Amino acid sequence: MGDILLYIHLALAVLLFALILFNRVKQFRSIAVTASSLLLLTGAHNFMTRMADAPKGWHAFVGIKLLLALHVIAIVFLIARGATAEKEARWRKSILITGTLVMLIGLYYSNFAR
Ligand code: HEM
Questions:
Q1: Does the CB atom of residue 110 touch ligand 1 within 6 A?
Q2: Is the minimum distance from the CB of 103 to ligand 1 under 6 angstroms?
Q3: Most buried in the list 44, 55, 91, 107, measured by CB within 10 Å?
Q4: Is the pTM of this model over 0.90?
Q5: What's the CA gap between 88 and 66, in Å, rounded?
Q6: Three-state secondary structure along the chain?
């Protein structure tokens, strides 16, 4: 169950990151908002289950990942709602940076740290 949810989390993360990367959040806003909400739910589950045999540094880095992920999700909601083109471009740039960090920390702890 845990592994399946981790893969679902990964698929949702790749989907959301692709929407941000190719500037398609507004075009597919319901997909972006649904993926963000499911990332929050599956992420909360991963957080509770993968804490058990946490490797060194897990709590610090996954804690930072959680905060950065919340930033990504909040900005995706704001872009989906819509703002001026200048604001949307600035917001998108910021979540390209935080989103990349979130992906890297998640992938590292899921695939290389254990
Ligand atoms: C923008 C939203 C998010 C993105 C892009 C993202 C991305 C990822 C990625 C790519 C992985 C690795 C999955 C794998 O290799 O199978 C991962 C794992 C994980 N994510 Fe997320 N995530 C997001 C939101 C969240 C949230 C909100 C939480 C916590 C509530 C969370 C907690 C975790 C945990 C605990 C892991 C597993 C780490 C481990 O294996 O020890 N994620 N995430």
A1: yes
A2: yes
A3: 91
A4: yes
A5: 23
A6: CHHHHHHHHHHHHHHHHHHHHCCCCCCCHHHHHHHHHHHHHHHHHHHHHHCCCCCCCHHHHHHHHHHHHHHHHHHHHHHHHCCCHHHHHHHHHHHHHHHHHHHHHHHHHHHCCC
